[in-house]
Amino acid sequence: MRFRHPSTKAQMVPVRKSHFRRHASRYVLFAIFAILLIYFFLPPFANVRVMGVVNGNLTPVGPIFLARVDQEMASCDTLVHRDQPLVLVSNELLAGQYQQNRYNAEKAIALADNEATNGVLVAQAAARSAQATAQAAVANYSRLTAVYRSTIKLAAVQAVGPVAVAVAHDQRLQAQSEAEAAVATAKQMELQVTQLKVDAKAKILTAQEQLKVQLSQQNSVYNRPLLAPVGGELLDCHAHLGEIVAAGNTLFKIFQPDKAYVTAFVPPTMVRNLHEHATAYINIPGMGEIPATVTSIQPEITKLPKLLTRYFWEQPQWTQYRLVRITFDNLSPSQRRRLLFGERVHVRIPLESWGKRMMENF
């Protein structure tokens, strides 16, 4: 008797396609949700860490004229306030002109004094001569007047005739005229002497006043203070006592901490991860991390400054960098006063996700 054994061949169980489709959709939705969560909500863990230096616009300070440094009033690498004297200088160009003017004024005084002395002496001699002539003329007039009176008396007793009386009368009139003219001349000469004295004194006073003006002008160009146009840290001092400085040359530079910023040196491969207005943190010795903001990214490639060069591969011929300017956020005045120009700092810039950056741009 034969028995029929069941077949050992496995039979294929049909799978419903709707089951896979339902689970596949769930997986896709979960993946999309995870990606969105990472892009938009998870905090960034990656940071760009580079070196930087405290930087700022330096205000140049120098004379606007050819000057000689007379005295140093401020020390380099110290804080100065606005309108503080930095050095005392002399205007060499005006000093030479005023010195010549002073010499001319002194010469004018000597000349006026000499003219006054000699002129008055000559006028006084002429006045004395005129006075003597006038006195002689007056004496002659007095004598002829006496003769005329005597002649009249003699004519009264008929001792002399009318002709003698007429001659005596004419001589008396002529002597009177000469005496009056001589007296007038003497008075005129005296007035001339007086006027010469007044004019000479006025000329001397004018020359002396001119000398005072020249002395004042000459003194005004000596020891003139060169003032600080702004307050800040005094840097790059090139003032040396007794040195002649041309107009426009810079003797000092002033760093203003309230306008300070940080220049970060970022490798070009890292710059693509940065963007303007990104948050940054500046680690300054003694102050810790200070929040800041990326304000600009320079397109030019530059060398690393010697201040930040430590290894041979950081030499200019090996490495190049992009400059990133970073400004401080809400830095207190006391903190800004502690900033030093060229100070080396550590910069940390957290990287933002692509999704967050896209949303910010949107």
Q: What is the alpha-carbon Rg in Å?
A: 54 Å
Q: Ranges with pLDDT <50 over ≥5 residues?
A: 1-13
Structural class: alpha+beta
* Main beta sheet strand tally, sense and closure: 6 strands, antiparallel, barrel
In total, the number of strands is 14
Helix content: 40-55%
What's the CATH C level of the largest domain?
Mainly Alpha
What's the arrangement of strands in the largest beta sheet? 1-10-13-12-11-14
Order of helices and strands: HEEEEEHHEEEEEHEEEHEH
How does the overall form come out from the CA principal axes? rod-shaped
Global mean pLDDT: 81
| Count of separate structural domains | 3
Number of helices: 6
CATH fold category name of the largest domain: Helix Hairpins
Separation of the first and last Cα atoms: 86 Å
Summary tags:
MFP, 4-stranded antiparallel beta sheet, disordered N terminus, 3 domains, 6-stranded antiparallel barrel, membrane, Elongation Factor Tu (Ef-tu), domain 3, transmembrane helix, transmembrane
How would you describe the overall organization of this protein?
Strand 11 and strand 12 form a beta hairpin. With 362 residues, this protein is an alpha+beta fold. It has helices spanning 17-40, 92-156, 162-220, 268-271, 333-337, 354-361; strands spanning 47-55, 58-61, 67-72, 79-80, 85-91, 224-227, 232-235, 244-245, 252-255, 261-266, 279-284, 288-302, 321-328, 344-350. The longest helix is centred in the middle third of the chain and has 65 residues, at 92-156. Helix content is 46%, strand content 23%. The chain folds into three domains: 43-56 and 257-361, Efflux pump adaptor protein, beta barrel domain (Elongation Factor Tu (Ef-tu), domain 3, Beta Barrel), CATH 2.40.30; 58-92 and 224-254, OB fold (Dihydrolipoamide Acetyltransferase, E2P), CATH 2.40.50.100; 94-220, Helix Hairpins (Orthogonal Bundle), CATH 1.10.287. Helix 2 packs antiparallel against helix 3 (162-220). The protein is built from six helices and 14 strands. Keywords: Membrane, Transmembrane, Transmembrane helix.
